């Protein structure tokens, strides 16, 4: 989410050749064309696009298959797979928004979908990011109970409670991301870059989907940045502590049964996977906040 994109990126081009890539100097030879340097250069944009497209395609395929497998096979609807399928839904929504992210990187203005779509897409992206982080954290806590306190886990962890907890996680993520609905909007980015005529006197539409001036002046942006820091640091600390305790419990048992060995392999795999996923997901949020 480009919350700090308050500069006049690609501001203004009066020459008829200044179009989609008008932010790049080589596309405008007329001295009347003026702009500031873009946040990303052409090479960076091409690299990001090349990375985004296969990431989106493979991500869509993998998450759709995860959802189908879990819900078409009733015997796989354990608490762990319920978490995984819910995370797949969250990740799927994030991936579906990637084309809009790419569009905004290549052409920040004019924003063609209106103020409401700007708010909803930004909110949905932030909500799903928070939701994925919460799922990773609580799934790790459940694995800790299953390995270190198996009897307690059998009593506490049930499908019904897991479904209720997943609903609470989605609600908590939505509440955490709610300030985004006030923070962002389609505002005039300034300049006279060639875009879509507004229909009122032939004026050029320079609206951008970005952080509003109100969010900066009111301190709401700073508060959201603190919240993003907490969503990064707290889950990271919990994951490190939980998987350290799980590893200590498994490796210090005097006799390792086949089940213990299976637990070790599973926990090691989940630890690596979810720690990496947490770091990547929260880093994704940071990229949008600081660019």
Automatic annotation (TrEMBL):
Gene Ontology molecular-function annotations: growth hormone secretagogue receptor activity
Record field: transmembrane: 51-72, 81-100, 120-141, 162-186, 230-251
InterPro entries, alphabetized: GHS-R/MTLR (IPR003905), GPCR_Rhodpsn (IPR000276), GPCR_Rhodpsn_7TM (IPR017452)
One Pfam family per UniProt: 7tm_1
PROSITE patterns (UniProt xref): G_PROTEIN_RECEP_F1_1, G_PROTEIN_RECEP_F1_2
Localization of this protein: Cell membrane
One cellular-component annotation, GO: plasma membrane
Keyword annotations from UniProtKB, A to Z: Cell membrane, Disulfide bond, G-protein coupled receptor, Glycoprotein, Membrane, Receptor, Transducer, Transmembrane, Transmembrane helix
Membrane topology category: Multi-pass membrane protein
Function: Receptor for ghrelin, coupled to G-alpha-11 proteins. Stimulates growth hormone secretion. Also binds other growth hormone releasing peptides (GHRP) (e.g. Met-enkephalin and GHRP-6) as well as non-peptide, low molecular weight secretagogues (e.g.
Similarity-based family: Belongs to the G-protein coupled receptor 1 family.
Name of the featured protein: Growth hormone secretagogue receptor type 1
Species assigned in the record: Dicentrarchus labrax (European seabass)
């Amino acid at each position: 989410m480009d919350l700090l994109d308050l500069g006049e990126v690609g501001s203004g081009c009066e020459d008829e050749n200044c179009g989609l890539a008008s932010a790049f100097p080589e596309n405008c030879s007329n001295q009347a064309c003026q702009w500031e340097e873009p946040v990303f250069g052409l090479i960076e944009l091409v690299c990001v696009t090349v990375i985004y497209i296969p990431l989106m395609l493979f991500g869509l395929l993998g998450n759709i298959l995860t959802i189908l497998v879990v819900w078409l096979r009733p015997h796989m609807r354990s608490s762990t797979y319920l978490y995984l399928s819910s995370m797949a839904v969250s990740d799927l929504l994030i991936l579906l928004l990637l084309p809009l992210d790419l569009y905004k990187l290549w052409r920040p203005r004019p924003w063609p979908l209106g103020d409401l779509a700007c708010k909803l897409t930004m909110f949905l992206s932030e909500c799903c990011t928070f939701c994925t982080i919460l799922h990773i954290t609580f799934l790790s806590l459940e694995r800790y109970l299953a390995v270190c306190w198996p009897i307690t886990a059998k009593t506490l962890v049930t499908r019904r409670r897991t479904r209720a907890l997943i609903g609470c996680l989605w609600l908590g993520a939505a509440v955490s991301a709610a300030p985004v609905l006030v923070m962002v909007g389609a505002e005039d980015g300034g300049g006279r870059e060639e875009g879509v005529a507004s229909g009122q006197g032939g004026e050029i539409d320079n609206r951008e989907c970005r952080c509003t001036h109100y969010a900066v002046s009111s301190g709401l942006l700073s508060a959201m940045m603190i919240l993003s820091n907490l969503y990064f640091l707290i889950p990271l600390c919990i994951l490190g502590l939980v998987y350290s305790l799980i590893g200590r419990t498994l490796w210090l048992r005097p006799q390792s049964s086949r089940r213990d060995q299976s637990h070790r392999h599973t926990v090691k795999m989940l630890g690596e996977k979810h720690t990496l996923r947490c770091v990547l997901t929260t880093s994704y949020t940071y990229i949008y906040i600081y660019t």
